[in-house]
């Protein structure tokens, strides 16, 4: 047996790196293990949604408050922190965030995450937690709800969170509107 082992349909770039396509997704492999993937149609660049999510998480963890402040850090060193050779420029990060937010697919993403988590686990105990979202504006007319932390009745909406016993979010329901279905 010769190592590394690659799937049979892998096109090798060299002895340890290759790529393959499966179900409309291109996978890049190093020693047979996937290191990166993107949609077959997404040929714009190296950074996809997963990369953007990881980069923004590390920006937050480093207490960087805006993309502009990234200019004060070395892109190569910050990239090594994240696990890439460098992070994208500020204008690229802004373009990527605009692309993701313009799709308005957060509800679908949350629902698909919940469905995949539920499919992974056996039926279990769920917790339902109620919260009041206080409304401070003047454009809408919400009924008054009791806010226990302020010991007052204030205008707002009831929100119910359904979580698993491990704390994973399953569903959020606000008054009569389902925010994310699991």
Explain this structure.
The protein has 2 domains: 49-102; 106-180, no CATH class. Strand 1 (11-12) and strand 2 form a beta hairpin. The termini are far apart. The strands form 2 sheets. Strands 5, 6, 7, 8 and 9 form a 5-stranded antiparallel β-sheet that branches. It has a 4-stranded antiparallel β-sheet with strand order 1-2-3-4, with no helix packed on it. It has 182 residues and is an alpha+beta fold. The protein has helices at residues 49-61, 75-82, 90-102, 106-120, and strands at 11-12, 17-22, 25-30, 33-39, 126-134, 144-147, 152-164, 169-174, 177-180. It contains 4 helices and 9 strands.
Sum up the structure in keywords:
alpha+beta, 182 residues, four-stranded antiparallel β-sheet, 9 strands
Shape: extended
Enumerate the spans where pLDDT stays under 50 for 5 or more consecutive residues. Answer: 176-182
Order of helices and strands: EEEEHHHHEEEEE
How can the largest sheet be summarized? Answer: 5 strands, antiparallel
Helical content, roughly?
25-40%
Radius of gyration: 22 Å
Our count of helices gives 4
Q: Report strand %.
A: 25-35%
Number of E strands: 9
Number of domains: 2
Rounded average pLDDT: 77
Structure class? alpha+beta
Distance between the termini: 45 Å
């Amino acid at each position: 047996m010769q190592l590394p082992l690659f799937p049979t349909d892998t096109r090798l770039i060299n002895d340890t790196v290759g790529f393959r396509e499966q179900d409309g997704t291109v996978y890049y492999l190093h020693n047979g293990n996937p290191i990166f993937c993107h949609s077959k149609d997404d040929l714009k660049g190296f950074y996809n949604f997963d990369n953007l999510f990881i980069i923004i998480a590390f920006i937050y963890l480093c207490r960087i408050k805006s993309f502009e402040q990234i200019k004060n850090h070395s892109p190569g060193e910050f990239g090594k922190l994240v696990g890439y050779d460098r992070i994208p420029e500020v204008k690229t990060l802004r373009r990527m965030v605009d692309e993701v937010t313009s799709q308005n697919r957060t509800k679908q993403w949350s629902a698909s995450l919940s469905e995949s988590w539920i499919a992974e686990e056996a039926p279990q105990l769920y917790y339902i937690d109620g919260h009041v979202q206080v409304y401070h504006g003047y454009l809408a007319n919400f009924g008054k709800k009791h806010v226990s932390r302020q010991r007052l009745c204030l205008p707002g909406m009831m929100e119910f969170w359904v979580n698993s016993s491990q704390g994973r979010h399953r569903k959020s329901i606000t008054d009569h509107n389902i925010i994310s279905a699991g």
